[in-house]
Amino acid sequence: MAITYKLACPLAQQNGLGARIATCAVFFAVGTGLVLHVRSGLLRELRQIRRVAGAAQGVLLRPLPPSVDGLQVAAAQVSADRGASVGGDLYEVIGTEHGVRVVMGDVRGHGLAAIGTVAAVLGSFREAVHDEPELPGVLRKLDRAMARHLRERAKAEHPSSGLDPDNPVAEEFVTVLLLEIGRDGEVTALNCGHPWPYVLRGDKEAPDARDRDRDRVEHLGFGDPLPPLGAFPLPAELPVADCGPLPPGEALFLYTDGVEDARDGAGRFFPLRAALTEAVRAHPASPQEVLGTVFTQLLRHADGFPTDDVAVLVLRNDRGVVSLPHGESMAHHAAP
């Protein structure tokens, strides 16, 4: 269009000021149209890529249902890579004939580079929880899946010499916390280098407010955990930790270390226990409200965006909990 105007239009052949202004306007309009056309095409392509990526990420770390076999569920995660909805953290909750089985994990590193390991671990977990009657069998299947994943990556990146000890694949591992919650509320666990969860309790009858707050939030811990998957072989014996019962109305708060490691501008770590205490005091019976309160405080503490992947999962035992008219709740024994 610009060339046709320059060659065919008599006005373009003139040297007057008006003719020059008209020529500049034509070239400016043509250039603007070209830029807008290219921009529109790039935006359409970007939207399509985001739809495809969102669908793939939703299948990988699919949204959890609000309730699984009488357990109310709330979960959220933030990737350290801007624009990505999945990073190196993973979680899943599945109801099986053996009980509700839960996995929370954290891949070494963060962001999009860790998605392959997340897919390997979650795919194995979703199959193993239905096939394995005991929790150690589930963990061993996860360990074998992790080993296959590392071998395949090593072959793809080093087809001639095998795994280079200085390559990041050689140092890749994933921390894993496996939980099983039986129909009677009994909780058992296997921990491979992952932070132990918190127990969130309801109101406690204590004369001192500090004692009540301390009783509301309790950090579980059952000895030294096993090594992370991929770092060392699993031992012959896998000690299953008996975490005790989770009575109706109480909840478990699972998280990855990106929560406690989040720092503010002064370098202070995020006070997770204090945030949980405040959340439970304000919303003692709502996993979604507890999750929202903790995440709001975390993002405010980290100035809007954490430097590591963050994942949080809240599970409350609603079996036998009867809602009362004024928003209160009364816990009965769980049904057999």
TrEMBL record:
Domain (PPM-type phosphatase): residue spans on this chain: 68-317
Entry keyword annotation includes Calcium: no
Transmembrane segments: 17-38
Keywords of this entry: Hydrolase, Membrane, Transmembrane, Transmembrane helix
PANTHER family according to UniProt: STAGE II SPORULATION PROTEIN E, STAGE II SPORULATION PROTEIN E-RELATED
Record protein name field: Serine/threonine-protein phosphatase
Species assigned in the record: Streptomyces ortus
High-level lineage: Bacteria, Bacillati, Actinomycetota, Actinomycetes, Kitasatosporales
